[in-house]
Amino acid sequence: MTTIDDTPDSTPDSTPVRFDTKIAVLLREDLETWQRLNVTAFLVSGLGTQLPEVIGEPYADADDTPYLPMFRQPVLVFEGTKETLTAAHGRALSRALPRAVFTTDLFATGNDRDNRAAVRAVGTGQLDLAGIAVYGPRNAVDKVLKGARMHP
Q1: Burial of 95 by CB count in 10 Å (0-12 exposed, 13-18 middle, 19+ buried)?
Q2: Are 71 and 23 in contact (CB under 8 A)?
């Protein structure tokens, strides 16, 4: 995948930055508020570990106190029905987009090893998805999210 250096500090003027890629999270609409926050946090953490191009430069305040780098672009959060999520998952797979999944089984586990085992125990078509995160070209991600709506 081709990436561009479109970070705000790479341009001397104040022209708005447009990204040719999109980071999106799709959540199942029937999740509790705490579940939505938890699922979103877990999902986006997967993207940053495998796709270094999504991470910007480290931050520092005026006193030179350092802070960790974050995504270089916004994360858009969507919601949809269980069926919308299943269809989006299938489209993400067919387009071979980088993706992360969070299944409802993970709400009952308490650590990474058990999380991975819970996903491993279920076939692709039977995953009870609570959320997915995808990254890729804007048009491809938009097609994956067909039928979803922006999270309120």
Answers
A1: middle
A2: yes
Q: How far is 3 from 54, CA to CA, in rounded Å?
A: 9
The reported pLDDT for the residue numbered 123 is 97
Report d(CA 150, CA 152) in Å as an integer.
6
Q: What token pair was written down for 9?
A: 């500090």
**Are 108 and 35 contacting, i.e. CB atoms less than 8 angstroms apart?**
no
Residue 108 C-beta-side C-alpha neighbours within 13 Å = 6
Show the tokens assigned to 26. Answer: 């799709």
Which pLDDT tens digit goes with each residue over 50-91? Answer: 899 999 999 999 999 999 999 999 999 999 999 999 999 999
As a whole number of angstroms, the distance between CA 8 and CA 14 comes to 8
